[in-house]
């Protein structure tokens, strides 16, 4: 499903650029834009990455699956807006 984003507020300890992060994935809902129910990504991240690792895909190149900062050479080139 589609993502739900949160903007990280610098005044609350977020990054200085106030960038956006994916917080959840649509589990189910109505038509696009009408709301829905979301699964929080961080709960399933270890499983998601284990499934994609077989194909050499790393969806969190800047972090380990437990959320700790662990940049790889692929941690670059993403949009900041």
Structure description:
With 81 residues, the chain is of the alpha+beta class. The chain contains 1 helix and 3 strands, in the order βββα. Strands 1-2-3 form a 3-stranded antiparallel β-sheet. A hairpin with a 6-residue loop joins β2 and β3. The longest helix has 13 residues. The protein is flat and about 40 Å long.
Question: TL;DR of this structure?
Answer:
The protein has one helix at about 40-55, and strands at about 5, 20-30, 35-40.
Q: Which key phrases capture this entry?
A:
three-stranded antiparallel sheet, 1 helix, alpha+beta
Number of strand elements: 3
User: What is the CA-CA span between the terminal residues?
Assistant: 22 Å
Mean pLDDT: 74
Percent of residues in helices:
10-25%
Strand order of the largest sheet: 1-2-3
Poorly predicted parts: none
For the biggest sheet, the summary is:
3 strands, antiparallel
Structural class of the secondary elements?
Answer: alpha+beta
Shape summary: flat
- Give me the number of helical elements: 1
- The percent range for strand residues is 15-25%
Query: What would you report as the Rg, rounded to the nearest angstrom?
Result: 14 Å
């Amino acid at each position: 499903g589609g993502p739900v984003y949160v903007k990280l507020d610098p005044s609350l300890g977020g990054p200085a650029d106030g960038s956006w992060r994916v917080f959840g994935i649509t589990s189910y809902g109505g038509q696009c834009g009408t709301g829905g129910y979301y699964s929080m990504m961080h709960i399933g991240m270890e499983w998601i990455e284990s499934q994609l690792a077989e194909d050499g895909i790393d969806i969190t190149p800047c972090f380990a699956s437990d959320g700790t900062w662990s940049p790889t050479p692929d941690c670059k080139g993403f949009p900041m807006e």
